[in-house]
Target: Glucose-1-phosphate adenylyltransferase
Amino acid sequence: MKDTLGVLLAGGAGERLFPLTRDRAKPAVPFAGQYRIIDSTLSNCINSDLRRVYILTQYKALSLNRHIREGWGTVVANELGEFIEILPPMQRVSKNWYTGTADAVYQNIYSIGSEEPKYVIILSGDHIYKMNYGRMLAQHKDSGAEVTLATLPISPDEVSAFGVVEIAHNGDVTGFVEKPKETNIRSPFTPDMVDVSMGIYIFNTDVLIPELLKDAENPDSKHDFGHDILPKLLGRFKVQAFNFVDENKTKALYWRDVGTLEAYYEANMDVAGVSPTFNLYDKSWPMRTRPYQYPPAKFVFGEPGRTGMAINSIVCSGSIVSGAVVRNSVVSHDVRVNSYADVDSSIVFSHVNIGRHCRIRHAILDRDVHIPDGTVIGYDPNEDKKNYFVSASGITVVTRDYSVYENPVSPDFLQQREVW
Model:
């Protein structure tokens, strides 16, 4: 990895995670209580010994920038030329914001060139998975490839959300179609599945830079790797596929795009379960994050009907479960759950206070929300819709703006909610 540079794309608006992304970037959305979504990819970088990483940010990046600065700046050794550095849009080669994944990398072409890497790994900060990028780089070098794509087998019914990769038996990529409605292409390794791109690419730098320059000059391009760059490489360069090797050490490959409320909710419920698919406790592949200086979690009172306890749940530091019951839930830092409350199958962000006698289930409570005594959430979707955001599948999301007991919800904002 000494001659390799990582470029992590973290500038997406994350509309499908609204309202959690209304005030924060998607990679900054909390995950599993104490982490942020971007921590998965950054942990993969460190565990793979990739220690020169640019993070390209754009929308609503304040909390993301703070998280990187306070949590990841000390992980690498700056005196050895290592860095994890944020690059916002600087309009150095364009007057626009990033218009696509390829344009984001192109706009930072001078920063990339100044590091003089032989290889560039393009990554995304939107996914939860464990992967050793060193394995992929080793195959890239050994095969003599000029470009390598990481691929994952999926069901043919899911191809409309992915870039479909056609692979020869020797691993060469012979075709690429971005998000087709359907496809007859099948994997040569798993005949009933389709190989799709994971959005992870390794380029020889002397291939990447000219292709980005050429794409930037094309007025008809969407300036996107999947739509434009990758299909045009085929037949001109040696493009290889790297079959995803999961460091999670489970039977099923674990790679999750937590870009919708439903996918995000299910991924959090998984890590809170008795036997989670995604293992946070594997010391051989640790998941790192920003350290928080909170006291230990505490559970108090043991009276009949007023016992502080958490069952099949994650409860992070600084939280107090005071005579309440938390089941099948993820509770972040500095949360107070007061007496006689019942929280079930929910995600609670940091700095939340849940009042006495509250009943909450199948909900996401955003940070700094204060739930008054006796509030019921998640039991009547029609009633919840009057005050909160309710997804199509029935997940109730409570934010400060949707909370009528704190701030009245304007008709304009309710109309915006219906759009999403």
Q: What stands out?
A: The chain has two domains: 4-257, 298-419. Residues 288 and 339 are 33 Å apart (CA to CA).
